[in-house]
Amino acid sequence: MFNRDRWDEILQALTANKFRTFLTAFGVFWGITILVLLLALTNGLKNGVTADFGNFATNSMFMWTQGTTKAYKGLPKGRRFNFKLEDVETLKRELPQLKYVSPRNQLGGFNGGNNVIRGTKSGAFSIYGDYPEFIKQQPMDIIQGRFISYSDINSKRKVCVLGVDVVKALYDKGEDALGTYIKVNGVNFLVVGTFKAANSGDQEEDANTIFMPFTTFGQAFNRGDRVGWMAITSNDDVSVTSLKPKILELMRASHKVHPEDERAIGNFDLSEAFNRVNGLFTILSFVGYFVGALVLMSGIIGISNIMLIVVKERTKEIGVRRALGASPWTIKSQVLQESLLLTIISGMVGISFAAGVIWVLNYILDMNGPVENFANPSVSMTVILVALLILVISGLLAGLIPANSATKMKPVDALRIE
């Protein structure tokens, strides 16, 4: 039941020495502020780093061929070889746990420059030969038209899908790209769609990309059924990392590569890297909680010490109240309430202040553009609820020792103290 007299008495006790109360509350304010800000900054760093993975399915790996380093079955070391389309079918047949196996070929990018021409305008862009399922591995927003289809693959249609920056470079503002033709290395292609990256880690690179059917790419640029590299994604319930040894074993056997030649086939395990990054930030979050809790604990100790002093100063008052019939629980509950009120108010102010700092950080990021490896610092409601729970528990613990001290005194002894 709400007792106004009790709360007036508590507020009077807390405001009797305002400067001392302020310094005591500041410890809790600063501790909870540090805790929330550390977790928000850790989350911002995590958002920035994981954005580098782009929107690509994280349960994926990439695989490409390199020179052999060991002789095998009469074949010399240093031999170069290429993946073939039949390798894709082998992987799909032998490993049903694989969701997508996308063969890819590329011009431009790290393979060197290429010329793309439309009328009097030209540019150098990354050109990819892909299968339709690649859009499920790396989602993108189709702005106009469509992505490549299996009908394009089977008919080897000379069609392409342009990134937004390709459109800006080759077309006038407001000009419709659909149904027009561009020339890639002297070969004409019909534009059937335009796209932009969907929350990708490298939006600029994606925007300067052109996709076309894999089979058309092979025919137009004399690649035949050769595969430059593969993007492999496993089913959601199976880690691609666990399948990687079998995948590499199958490819070595298909191309007569020594079973122990680990350098002949290059690979990058996106799933493993993503899990490693997540593990790192789990540790950083724990460190944030730990450091914040230590700072908060110092504030709680300060409150406990001040409450001990307050109880000492009010010894005679406590003796009078006990002599008038106040129960030990009444005395104890008042001390606990004072401690809890001081802790919660200072803690809530700290949470509000931290929220303001986080808002300012996000506002600055929105105004000045993205920062490398840092984006959208924030905390979830779970963190706020945990912080409130910490405050309540801390407030009770801070007042427990002074409250017990207050109830242990006998009324007669308390009245004798000057």
TrEMBL record:
The keyword Cytoplasm does not apply. Residues 21-247 form the MacB-like periplasmic core domain. It holds the Pfam family FtsX. InterPro entries: ABC3_permease_C (IPR003838), MacB_PCD (IPR025857), Macrolide_Exporter_MacB (IPR050250). Belongs to the ABC-4 integral membrane protein family. It is found in: Cell membrane. Residues 290-411 form the ABC3 transporter permease C-terminal domain. The lineage of its organism: Bacteria, Pseudomonadati, Bacteroidota, Flavobacteriia, Flavobacteriales. The chain crosses the membrane at residues 21-41, 286-311, 340-361, 381-401. This is ABC transporter permease.
